[in-house]
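We modelled the chain as a single entity of 169 amino acids. Its sequence is:
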Amino acid sequence: MVRKLLPVLLVLIGIGGGIGAGIMLRPDPAETAALPECEPVETAAHGAKDDGHAVDDHGEPLLPEYVKLNNQFVVPVVDQDRVAAMVILSLSVEASAGSREDVYAREPKLRDVFLQVLFDHANVGGFRGAFTTAGNMQILRDALLDAARGVLGQDVRDVLITDIARQDV
């Protein structure tokens, strides 16, 4: 009887402790009401600073936009004339504020040059062994950034590898 009652008793104690902690740690309503309202951030560029980055009406630099490319990239790893593995990547482009539409408008060309870079990286052995080492990933990021700047110009700040997986066949 005690064996069946003990788990139920432990669950009830845990729930009671969680509720009690939530009540004790709840912020004071007077403190939260005193917080100032934030104004929305505009994403359109109003001007430029001396360093070339877009600024808003107050001279503050605008935050970059992160544009996630719609589909994943699938790269075969060929070893001795057969597919030994498949590498699947998701990429995002860090671009200047207001560049999102330009990135999406040129996405087919961008995907083409990214695939060429990824295939070249696979062909020189970049996805073999410990392919996620910092040095190996930096080489890939730099090559992807150069390719993106060739398509989109200096609006591209970086190319982010958001997901990467290798499946041996």
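As a brief sanity check on the tokenised model: Residues 2-33 form one domain. The chain is about 40% helix and 25% strand.
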